């Protein structure tokens, strides 16, 4: 950032020959920067420009050509968009920068959150031709809550529809106070010639392909004065020198070096957010200077909460290469040739090849990650550059490295000393709310499916696997349709397992719609030992949530005492199987009031069968109701979409319970909605709210299914 004022030196800071892994021995020589922005904003292209500017790669790749460093997965190449978190380290002026390129589509928010966890600062990428989407705004608010330092890069300033001034105004409106540009683009006939540094008041000309410095033209004087004044006032407001504002208002010139120092401090503590710009061949050097001089090193970024395995907080751990080892697996991938690869952020201590570490994973059992504590040996350490894995001698506190063949380590796990096992508090991860039922296409696929799904679950904490015993379906709970497509693609291409999607079955219930009496008669005498059991039952419905009651009113021993439990067992077995559509029966009271037995042919099994027959006969006498599960929904949306959301919920047979404001510009809508109506609500809400809406669901109760829907379900019952 200093060169933004002093001379903005035209130095590349190249790491050397492309392919050589950059190293860092000290945390203060490392910057971990995550690129955040909506899909298509230009994050991957920006990463390519920075890699080329530092000599890390010989030439910047193109997303359209499928040859970029960070979009190396075959799905990304095919779809021309990022779906994975990727790391691209580079070196500028002796500082190692770990660039974390994240997906910009909401379905892959798990990788995006992993990038935020591993980073110490965020570079928000906004397209000059498209502006800001809802997801980017939500992530800005998340970063604000944790005080993460941020800067904004407006990309595609050379696009034919680009409007730098309009997008800058949008950024200031949406992101709030403290957002101010450091440079202004100079555009002639749609071509970006260079940048004007507002603090240095110099024009950096890129017209010839290399940067040269000159005085800006007189036609820019008024614009420079206005924007420069806004920038200086913003910096002074963040200054720790309270006299600076008074001196400035009195007309005293403020030393540029003082302004730069205050700017760097404000950026590092996350209270001032400089805006830069990027186009073809323009802006890379300026962005590199912001990252190396304005963004904090790992030493300045607080560590996540650390506890022992019992949950007791552990104090005194800092970003120290000589401290106790505390590292976290931020991403797990399965390579068909190398095996499992764990991307690890080292928060304390030093990770070395061949050392033994303790691997702890807790708190994600609901998503298929059982709690585990094991010791594992570190194999080869590498410094990833996209898909390249370059050998690394060690990973010091603050750095990011990859570890091969940690067989038990999963995304979110903590690596620590064997004799001092520790646990890092898990980062926030949204619940997957789109259920997708699948089945293997063949017996061979079925044999491989379990292992392949286990690998996917280990890689992706936003995926939840459910084997529903009631519906006998295998269900993947995903973040959205695009997430589902990528998972099924990986099953097929990476693991060689072919599956097909099937219609999701919602687990319903059955109950009786009235009271009646019925007889179960199981009499079979074909010579020798036969079966003899007759029971008379009265069935009646119970209120919702009443469960099952069995009442014994046998008098005079007409049914021997040892066979009364047999009748109850038979009734329970038939209730589990259902009597209409194959769903379990609930909320029923069954009274055994009469029966007959035989001294020789009566048996436990005979009375079980009689109890089942009696329940079936009762179902033929009175209406049998199908019950559907009803969920309580809490939908958080921007105020602009509240009306649409409430109308949509009503159209889904939902009952809106009320609304309440949450923060500024958002409303929480609460409603009760049948599960049958919200199996695809994750997709529909995203479309309705332009990606800004979120929701939570929890089971509430069972209610009768409307007759027209009940008849359809009964007709299609197995």
Automatic annotation (TrEMBL):
Domain Tr-type G: residue ranges: 28-299
One Gene Ontology molecular-function label: translation elongation factor activity
Keyword Protein biosynthesis attributed: yes
The entry's keywords: Elongation factor, GTP-binding, Nucleotide-binding, Protein biosynthesis
Positions of the UniProt region annotated as Disordered: 1-20
InterPro entries tied to this protein: EF-G-like_DII, EFG_II, EFG_III, EFG_III/V, EFG_IV, EFG_V, EFG_V-like, P-loop_NTPase
KW GTP-binding (keyword) present: yes
Database matches in PANTHER family: ELONGATION FACTOR G-LIKE PROTEIN (PTHR43261:SF6), TRANSLATION ELONGATION FACTOR G-RELATED (PTHR43261)
Protein name per the record: Elongation factor G
Species lineage: Bacteria, Bacillati, Actinomycetota, Actinomycetes, Streptosporangiales
């Amino acid at each position: 950032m200093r060169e933004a004022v002093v001379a903005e030196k035209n130095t590349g800071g190249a790491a050397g020959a492309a392919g050589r892994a950059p190293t860092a021995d000290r945390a203060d020589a490392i910057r971990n920067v995550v690129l955040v922005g909506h899909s298509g904003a230009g994050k991957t292209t920006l990463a390519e420009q920075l890699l080329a500017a530092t000599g890390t790669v010989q030439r910047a790749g193109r997303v359209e050509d499928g040859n970029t460093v960070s979009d190396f997965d075959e799905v990304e190449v095919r779809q021309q968009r990022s779906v994975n978190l990727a790391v691209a380290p580079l070196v500028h002026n002796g500082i190692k920068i770990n660039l974390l390129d994240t997906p910009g589509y909401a379905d892959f928010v798990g990788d995006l959150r992993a990038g935020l966890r591993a980073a110490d600062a965020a570079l928000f990428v906004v397209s000059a031709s498209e502006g800001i989407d809802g997801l980017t705004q939500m992530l800005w608010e998340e970063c604000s809550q944790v005080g993460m330092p941020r800067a904004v890069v407006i990309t595609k300033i050379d696009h034919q529809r680009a409007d730098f001034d309009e997008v800058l105004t949008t950024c200031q409106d949406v992101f709030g106070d403290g957002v101010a540009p450091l440079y202004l683009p100079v555009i002639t006939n749609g071509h970006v010639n260079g940048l004007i540094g507002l603090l240095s008041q110099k024009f950096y000309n890129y017209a010839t392909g290399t940067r040269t410095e000159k005085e800006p033209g007189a036609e820019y004087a008024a614009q420079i004065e206005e924007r420069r004044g806004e920038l200086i006032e913003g910096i002074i407001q963040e200054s720790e020198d309270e006299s600076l504002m008074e001196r400035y208002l009195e007309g005293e010139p403020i030393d540029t070096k003082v302004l730069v120092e205050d700017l760097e401090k404000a950026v590092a503590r996350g209270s001032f957010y400089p805006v830069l710009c990027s186009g073809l061949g323009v802006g890379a050097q300026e962005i590199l200077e912001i990252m190396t001089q304005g963004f904090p090193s790992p030493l300045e970024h607080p560590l996540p909460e650390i506890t022992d395995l019992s949950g007791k907080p552990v104090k005194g751990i800092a970003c120290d290469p000589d401290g106790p080892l505390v590292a976290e697996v931020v991403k797990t991938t399965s390579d068909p040739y190398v095996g499992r690869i764990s991307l690890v952020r080292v928060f304390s201590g030093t990770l070395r090849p061949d050392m033994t570490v303790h691997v702890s994973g807790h708190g994600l059992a609901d998503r298929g990650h059982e709690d585990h504590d094991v010791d594992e040996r570190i194999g080869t350490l590498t410094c990833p550059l996209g898909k390249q894995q370059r050998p690394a001698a060690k990973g010091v506190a603050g750095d990011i490295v990859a570890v091969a063949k940690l067989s038990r380590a999963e995304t979110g796990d903590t690596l620590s000393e064997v004799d001092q096992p520790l646990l890092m508090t898990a980062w926030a991860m949204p619940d997957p709310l789109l259920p997708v039922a699948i089945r293997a296409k063949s017996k061979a696929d079925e044999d491989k499916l379990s292992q392949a799904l286990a690998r996917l679950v280990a890689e992706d904490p936003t995926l939840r696997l459910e084997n529903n015993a009631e519906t006998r379906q295998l269900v993947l709970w995903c973040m959205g349709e695009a997430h589902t497509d990528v998972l099924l693609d990986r099953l097929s291409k990476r693991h060689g397992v072919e599956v097909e999607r099937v219609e999701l079955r919602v687990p319903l219930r059955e109950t009786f719609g009235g009271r009646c009496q019925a007889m179960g008669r199981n009499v079979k005498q074909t010579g020798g030992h036969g079966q003899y059991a007759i029971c008379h039952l009265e069935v009646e419905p119970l209120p919702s949530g009443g469960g099952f009651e069995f009442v014994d009113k046998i008098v005079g021993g007409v049914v021997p005492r040892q066979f009364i439990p047999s009748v109850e067992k038979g009734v329970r077995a038939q209730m589990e199987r259902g009597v209409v559509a194959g769903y379990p029966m609930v909320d029923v009271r069954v009274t055994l009031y009469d029966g007959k037995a035989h001294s020789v042919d009566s048996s436990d099994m005979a009375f079980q069968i009689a109890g089942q027959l009696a329940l079936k006969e009762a179902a033929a006498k009175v209406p049998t109701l199908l019950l559907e599960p009803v969920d309580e929904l809490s939908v958080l949306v921007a105020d602009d979409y509240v009306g649409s959301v409430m109308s949509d919920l009503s159209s889904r047979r939902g009952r809106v319970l009320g609304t309440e404001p949450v923060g500024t510009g958002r409303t929480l809508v609460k409603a009760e909605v049948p599960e049958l109506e919200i199996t695809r609500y994750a997709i529909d809400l995203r479309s309705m709210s332009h990606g800004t809406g979120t929701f939570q669901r929890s089971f509430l109760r069972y209610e009768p299914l409307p007759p027209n829907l009940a008849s359809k379900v009964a007709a299609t019952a197995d």
